[in-house]
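Following up on my earlier message about adenosine-5'-triphosphate. Here are the inputs again, as you asked, copied directly from the submission form:
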Amino acid sequence: MDDRAIVTENLTKKFKDLVAVDHVNFDVKKGEIFGLLGPNGAGKTTVIRMLCTLTYPTEGTASVAGYDIVKEDGKVREHIGLVSEKMIMYDRLTAYENLKFFGKLCNVPKGTLEKRIDELLRLVHMEKWAKSQIGTFSTGMKQRINVIRALLNVPEILFMDEPTLGLDPQSTSEIREFIKKLNVEDKATIVLTTHQMIEADMLCDRVGIIDRGKIVALDTPLNLKKIVAGAEKTSVDMNVPNLTNEMVGTLKGLPGIVSVVREKETHLLIRARGEDAFDKIIDSIRQSGGKIASIKSQEPSLEDVFLHITGKEMRAEVRSKVKTYEVGKHGPMQPKSRVR
Ligand SMILES: Nc1ncnc2c1ncn2[C@@H]1O[C@H](COP(=O)(O)OP(=O)(O)OP(=O)(O)O)[C@@H](O)[C@H]1O
Ligand SMILES: [Mg+2]
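Thanks, got it. Here's what our run produced:
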């Protein structure tokens, strides 16, 4: 049996001469939380919109829950839920009325709809607000309703486009916990997009890094971090109570050192390249008579991976095309005239 919930084959979307999504190939396994990570304008929402059958690919295709997104779009829609980037709800209606309306739109049987709404409102701690108008809600409250709206038909595959965008830290962490719970307890396959490396790191089993329409890396967060670990960068936070300017000078002269910042009298933040950078730093301090009270090696983050991968690409492009890198072409400055 195929254990893949989603398979894309050269999935491509062009808007006139802009290639928003460029021959993208990836699989999402059943039961997985898969993250699409990338900067503004990278093509994340466009991938999601194609997989949710809201827009057709220009080239290539994909299957979702075993159905072709173009030839069997109706079937695809029966198996998915979408938490869209934009919260489209009726401000004058109450939370309950909004949910009832959207439940009817997705053909949730009448007998089960009300029970499902009550259950979902409780899950996101919004039962007290069921009879209040959406227009009176804070962003975090609205987003909770927006998220459960996508769950009314108990979807097998849930797409979430930036589920924590604009939320305060508490709502963010509650929504993240809720996503994890849906995945673990309800066995939902989840595809989420985010700009936030930390979110991808916390939630996702695998992450696809997308940049200018192309998947530039795809793996588990751990394996992605290994790309930059050791060989590329070490970050060390060190407390040396008898620190001297001479020690700092010697450190700065070591091969592979990128930067040495003396934060307090006794504190150093050191960035270095090379596999043995960590050992060299410690040896140097000790040889100059320094006593190390504490040392913390900071793990590379997905942020480092992203900079490592896309930074290289950008430099290559600048070298080959000179000045053809236009932020506006791919970024938020580009007006989005909605073409289907
Ligand atoms: N309907 C459209 N018509 C024309 N261009 C579009 C349309 N939708 C998206 N684009 C363009 O395609 C590119 C990718 O946009 P998309 O919204 O998929 O990016 P994103 O990664 O979701 O970005 P963000 O992080 O800002 O949400 C952008 O350059 C955008 O301007
Ligand atoms: Mg987007």
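One observation from looking it over: The two ends are 35 Å apart (CA to CA). Hope that helps, and feel free to reply on this thread.
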